[in-house]
Structure formats: C-alpha cells, structure tokens
DNA sequence: TGAATGATGCGCT
DNA sequence: GCGCATCATTCAT
C-alpha cells in the first residue's frame, strides 16, 4: 500500500490518542543531505497547563509558542546545552500540547544519519530524543514547521505495532505519576528507562 | 552492568 | 544564577 502522509486531522485530536497512534508511523525528513526516514517506536505526551512537566505549564513564552499554535507543527527546543528534542504539536490552536518523539528505527538514509551523528555503527542511533535529532540533523531551524506542507512530515506505511506498553515519562521530576510514555516493547531501539 | 558525573547554552525567575 | 523532556564517559562492583 502506498504511504499516506498524516493530515492535520490526525494531530487535531486528544494527545493521549495521538501519542500511541504515532507508534509504527514513519518520520520523514527531506534534508539537504538527502531523504531520511525512521519508524517511530517511543513517544511521550505533554499536555496543557495542568501538566507540570509540560513546557506550557507556566503559560505562553517565546520558546513554547508552537505548542499554543495549530496542530501538525513541529516544536523543537534546545536542552542541556547540546541537544535538541523533536515534538509534534497536537490539539487545537490555543490548547497547548505535543508529543515528544523519543526513539525510532532507521528506514531510509542510514548513511546520512551515521554521518550526522559522527558514528560508525547504528547502535543507539535513534534511541533517545537527543540522538534522534542529531542523526536527523534537526535543530531550531526546523522549529514550528508545518508537518502537512514542509520538508518534514509523518507517514502511515501500514507498519504493524503489536506490543504497545505505557510507563512514566523519562527525565522529568514532576508529573511522574502520569503514565504518558508509550513505546513498542518489541523494538530494540526504545531508549533506556528509569 | 549500573551509578555518578561533566559537558554545555539558554530560557526563565 | 538555576535548572533543564540528555547523553557519553568514567568509575565501581
């Protein structure tokens, strides 16, 4: 079956529905070094002003602005002085929420990913949000792009996911009681928990 | 194989 | 200044 690019209506839904639905979908980025793609295997939901771990918890700022915008846009931010994290914005405009793409399995453009990451083996190439952005060459230049119009988007290639698990989100100190991390337990590329 | 730690820049208080 | 939706490296077991 032909790949189908996800439409805005896919993202314009409750984030806890969008997040698990993204597992098995394929992230595609037409970079200036070539086309890169990867099967998404781990995500986390960050939802609104009541989620203390969500960047939008303290209201609109210049950084978190994309989350407040319409669904189907990228939200890429810089963290820990050296890494970027890729999110896809969900829910309607004015309702700040997003899904963090934490890990994926390489599909197309493995050579470019390795080169971007300064790595020789594909071990842990995309297993973690910082690693994934590094391999894809994503930075704030790709922040707030339209996943329905720009060079980065997500496709449905009808890849099956048979073993979806959920857990607490990783790397946060608040909101740990919420089981808003979803992952494909059959994938070897899921990042290390705890 | 797991815990501790340093690297590193920027948004926000 | 502080803390961060991380990761590679180092050191201990």
**Count of the separate structural domains:** 1
Shape: globular
The main β sheet shows up as: 9 strands, antiparallel
In percent, how helical is the residue content? 10-25%
Q: Which regions contain 5 or more consecutive residues with pLDDT less than 50? A: none
Q: Using only CA atoms, what is the Rg?
A: 15 Å
Defining traits:
194 residues; alpha+beta; 3-methyladenine DNA Glycosylase, Chain A; 9-stranded antiparallel sheet; DNA-binding
Describe the overall structure:
- This protein has 194 residues and is α+β, with helices and mostly antiparallel strands.
- Strands 1, 2, 3, 4, 5, 6, 7, 8 and 9 form a nine-stranded antiparallel sheet that branches.
- It has helices at residues 8-11, 15-22, 65-68, 110-117, 129-136; strands at residues 4-5, 26-31, 34-47, 74-79, 83-89, 97-108, 152-156, 164-167, 181-184.
- The chain has five helices and nine strands; from the N terminus they run E-H-H-E-E-H-E-E-E-H-H-E-E-E.
- It starts with a strand and ends in a 10-residue tail after the last strand.
- The chain has one domain (4-184): 3-methyladenine DNA Glycosylase, Chain A.
- The protein is globular and about 40 Å long.
- The model has no long low-confidence stretch (mean pLDDT 97).
- Strand 4 and strand 5 form a beta hairpin.
């Amino acid at each position: 079956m032909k790949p189908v690019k996800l439409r805005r209506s896919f993202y314009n839904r409750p984030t806890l529905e969008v997040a698990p639905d993204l597992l098995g979908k394929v992230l595609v980025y037409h970079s200036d070094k070539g086309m890169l793609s990867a099967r998404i295997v781990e995500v986390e939901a960050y939802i609104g002003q009541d989620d203390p771990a969500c960047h939008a918890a303290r209201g609109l700022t210049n950084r978190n602005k994309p989350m407040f915008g319409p669904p189907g846009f990228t939200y890429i931010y810089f963290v820990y002085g050296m890494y970027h994290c890729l999110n896809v914005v969900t829910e309607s405009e004015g309702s700040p929420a997003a899904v963090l793409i934490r890990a994926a399995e390489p599909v197309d453009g493995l050579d470019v990913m390795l080169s971007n990451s300064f790595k020789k083996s594909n071990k842990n190439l995309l297993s973690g949000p910082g690693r994934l952005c590094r391999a894809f060459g994503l930075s704030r230049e790709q922040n707030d792009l339209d996943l329905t119009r720009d060079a980065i988007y997500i496709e449905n290639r009808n890849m099956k996911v048979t073993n979806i698990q959920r857990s607490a989100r990783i790397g946060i100190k608040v909101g740990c009681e919420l089981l808003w991390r979803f992952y494909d337990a059959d994938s070897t590329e899921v990042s290390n928990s705890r």
